[in-house]
Design a protein that fits this description.
Blueprint: H1 3-12, H2 17-26, H3 35-57, H4 65-84, H5 93-121, H6 129-159, H7 164-185
Helix pairs in contact: 1-6, 2-4, 2-7, 3-5, 3-6, 4-5, 4-7
Length: 189
Protein backbone atom coordinates (compact mmCIF):
# COMPACT_ATOMS: atom_id res chain seq x y z
CA UNK A 1 0.00 0.00 0.00
CA UNK A 2 1.22 3.49 -0.76
CA UNK A 3 2.78 5.14 2.30
CA UNK A 4 0.66 8.30 1.88
CA UNK A 5 -2.59 6.34 1.96
CA UNK A 6 -1.30 4.26 4.86
CA UNK A 7 -0.83 7.52 6.80
CA UNK A 8 -4.40 8.58 6.05
CA UNK A 9 -5.66 5.14 7.05
CA UNK A 10 -3.61 5.23 10.26
CA UNK A 11 -5.38 8.40 11.42
CA UNK A 12 -8.87 7.66 10.09
CA UNK A 13 -9.09 3.97 11.07
CA UNK A 14 -11.85 3.51 13.64
CA UNK A 15 -9.84 0.62 15.10
CA UNK A 16 -7.38 3.26 16.28
CA UNK A 17 -10.06 5.68 17.47
CA UNK A 18 -7.69 6.99 20.12
CA UNK A 19 -6.16 9.29 17.47
CA UNK A 20 -9.59 10.71 16.67
CA UNK A 21 -10.36 11.16 20.36
CA UNK A 22 -7.11 13.09 20.75
CA UNK A 23 -7.99 15.34 17.82
CA UNK A 24 -11.49 15.96 19.23
CA UNK A 25 -10.10 16.81 22.66
CA UNK A 26 -7.51 19.07 21.04
CA UNK A 27 -10.13 21.21 19.28
CA UNK A 28 -12.99 21.01 21.78
CA UNK A 29 -13.16 24.82 21.82
CA UNK A 30 -12.96 25.46 18.07
CA UNK A 31 -15.14 26.00 15.02
CA UNK A 32 -14.35 26.96 11.40
CA UNK A 33 -13.25 30.48 12.31
CA UNK A 34 -10.39 28.85 14.27
CA UNK A 35 -9.20 26.72 11.35
CA UNK A 36 -5.79 28.42 11.10
CA UNK A 37 -4.90 27.73 14.73
CA UNK A 38 -6.28 24.21 14.46
CA UNK A 39 -4.09 23.46 11.42
CA UNK A 40 -1.02 24.63 13.36
CA UNK A 41 -1.97 22.38 16.30
CA UNK A 42 -2.46 19.41 13.98
CA UNK A 43 0.90 20.08 12.37
CA UNK A 44 2.54 20.26 15.81
CA UNK A 45 1.14 16.80 16.53
CA UNK A 46 2.45 15.51 13.20
CA UNK A 47 5.91 16.94 13.91
CA UNK A 48 6.10 15.02 17.19
CA UNK A 49 4.66 11.90 15.56
CA UNK A 50 7.26 12.17 12.75
CA UNK A 51 10.21 12.56 15.11
CA UNK A 52 9.49 9.39 17.07
CA UNK A 53 8.64 7.42 13.94
CA UNK A 54 11.98 8.44 12.44
CA UNK A 55 13.98 7.72 15.61
CA UNK A 56 12.24 4.39 16.19
CA UNK A 57 12.39 3.50 12.50
CA UNK A 58 16.15 4.02 12.58
CA UNK A 59 16.33 1.80 15.66
CA UNK A 60 17.52 4.64 17.90
CA UNK A 61 14.52 4.67 20.24
CA UNK A 62 12.78 1.70 21.78
CA UNK A 63 9.87 2.03 24.17
CA UNK A 64 7.86 -0.43 26.21
CA UNK A 65 4.62 -0.79 24.25
CA UNK A 66 2.57 -1.31 27.40
CA UNK A 67 3.59 2.10 28.70
CA UNK A 68 2.98 3.79 25.36
CA UNK A 69 -0.49 2.21 25.09
CA UNK A 70 -1.20 3.57 28.58
CA UNK A 71 0.26 7.04 27.91
CA UNK A 72 -1.80 7.57 24.74
CA UNK A 73 -5.15 7.73 26.59
CA UNK A 74 -3.46 9.67 29.41
CA UNK A 75 -2.46 12.27 26.80
CA UNK A 76 -6.08 12.40 25.58
CA UNK A 77 -7.43 12.85 29.12
CA UNK A 78 -4.85 15.56 29.81
CA UNK A 79 -5.75 17.37 26.57
CA UNK A 80 -9.45 17.23 27.45
CA UNK A 81 -8.75 18.60 30.95
CA UNK A 82 -6.42 21.26 29.52
CA UNK A 83 -9.06 22.45 27.07
CA UNK A 84 -11.84 22.28 29.64
CA UNK A 85 -10.08 24.88 31.75
CA UNK A 86 -9.81 27.22 28.72
CA UNK A 87 -12.17 30.16 28.99
CA UNK A 88 -14.52 30.06 26.00
CA UNK A 89 -13.79 32.72 23.43
CA UNK A 90 -10.55 33.93 25.07
CA UNK A 91 -7.14 33.67 23.46
CA UNK A 92 -4.08 33.50 25.66
CA UNK A 93 -0.74 33.81 23.85
CA UNK A 94 1.16 32.02 26.61
CA UNK A 95 -1.41 29.25 26.77
CA UNK A 96 -1.41 28.78 23.00
CA UNK A 97 2.39 28.47 22.88
CA UNK A 98 2.28 25.93 25.67
CA UNK A 99 -0.55 24.12 23.91
CA UNK A 100 1.62 23.73 20.79
CA UNK A 101 4.54 22.40 22.86
CA UNK A 102 2.31 19.94 24.70
CA UNK A 103 0.80 18.84 21.38
CA UNK A 104 4.30 18.10 20.00
CA UNK A 105 5.10 16.04 23.13
CA UNK A 106 1.87 14.08 22.77
CA UNK A 107 2.70 13.56 19.09
CA UNK A 108 5.98 12.01 20.24
CA UNK A 109 4.05 9.56 22.45
CA UNK A 110 1.47 8.70 19.78
CA UNK A 111 4.26 8.18 17.22
CA UNK A 112 5.85 5.60 19.49
CA UNK A 113 2.54 3.75 19.51
CA UNK A 114 2.83 3.12 15.77
CA UNK A 115 6.60 2.91 15.44
CA UNK A 116 7.00 -0.86 15.76
CA UNK A 117 4.47 -1.48 12.99
CA UNK A 118 6.12 1.11 10.77
CA UNK A 119 9.57 -0.37 11.48
CA UNK A 120 8.38 -3.88 10.51
CA UNK A 121 7.06 -2.52 7.23
CA UNK A 122 10.41 -0.96 6.41
CA UNK A 123 12.72 -3.90 7.13
CA UNK A 124 13.49 -4.31 3.46
CA UNK A 125 16.82 -2.52 3.88
CA UNK A 126 15.64 0.54 1.98
CA UNK A 127 15.74 4.10 3.16
CA UNK A 128 13.14 5.10 5.69
CA UNK A 129 13.19 8.83 4.95
CA UNK A 130 10.94 9.06 1.87
CA UNK A 131 8.41 6.42 3.01
CA UNK A 132 8.23 8.19 6.36
CA UNK A 133 7.74 11.56 4.69
CA UNK A 134 4.93 10.19 2.53
CA UNK A 135 3.37 8.46 5.55
CA UNK A 136 3.44 11.62 7.64
CA UNK A 137 1.98 13.69 4.81
CA UNK A 138 -0.85 11.14 4.79
CA UNK A 139 -1.23 11.47 8.57
CA UNK A 140 -1.45 15.25 8.17
CA UNK A 141 -4.00 14.98 5.36
CA UNK A 142 -6.12 12.54 7.38
CA UNK A 143 -5.98 14.76 10.45
CA UNK A 144 -6.97 17.82 8.49
CA UNK A 145 -9.91 15.96 6.97
CA UNK A 146 -11.14 14.85 10.41
CA UNK A 147 -10.59 18.29 11.90
CA UNK A 148 -12.39 20.14 9.13
CA UNK A 149 -15.40 17.86 9.56
CA UNK A 150 -15.32 18.48 13.34
CA UNK A 151 -15.03 22.24 12.84
CA UNK A 152 -17.86 22.26 10.31
CA UNK A 153 -20.11 20.36 12.75
CA UNK A 154 -19.12 22.78 15.54
CA UNK A 155 -20.00 25.72 13.30
CA UNK A 156 -23.40 24.20 12.50
CA UNK A 157 -24.02 23.60 16.20
CA UNK A 158 -23.11 27.21 16.93
CA UNK A 159 -25.62 28.33 14.29
CA UNK A 160 -28.20 26.12 16.02
CA UNK A 161 -27.60 27.91 19.33
CA UNK A 162 -25.02 25.72 21.06
CA UNK A 163 -22.57 27.97 22.87
CA UNK A 164 -18.83 27.52 22.59
CA UNK A 165 -18.65 26.67 26.30
CA UNK A 166 -21.40 24.02 25.99
CA UNK A 167 -19.53 22.47 23.06
CA UNK A 168 -16.28 22.59 24.97
CA UNK A 169 -17.68 20.98 28.13
CA UNK A 170 -19.48 18.24 26.18
CA UNK A 171 -16.51 17.32 23.96
CA UNK A 172 -14.03 17.42 26.85
CA UNK A 173 -16.32 15.36 29.09
CA UNK A 174 -16.85 12.67 26.44
CA UNK A 175 -13.24 12.44 25.26
CA UNK A 176 -11.84 12.68 28.78
CA UNK A 177 -14.17 10.01 30.16
CA UNK A 178 -13.43 7.60 27.30
CA UNK A 179 -9.70 8.25 27.68
CA UNK A 180 -9.70 7.61 31.43
CA UNK A 181 -11.52 4.33 30.81
CA UNK A 182 -8.94 3.35 28.19
CA UNK A 183 -6.07 4.30 30.54
CA UNK A 184 -7.52 2.15 33.34
CA UNK A 185 -7.82 -0.82 30.96
CA UNK A 186 -4.25 -0.33 29.75
CA UNK A 187 -2.46 0.21 33.06
CA UNK A 188 0.97 -1.36 32.72
CA UNK A 189 1.45 -1.85 36.46
Amino acid sequence: MNDFYLGIEHITDFGGYDHMLFLLALVAWANLKDAGRVVILATAFTVGHSITLLLAGMGWVHADGRWIEFLIPVSIAFTAAWNLRREAGKRHAWGNGLAYAITVVFGLIHGLGFSSFFRMMREDGGSIVMPLLRFNLGVEAGQLLILMVCLAVATLLKAAGVTQREQQVFVCAVTGTLAVGMAIQRMPF
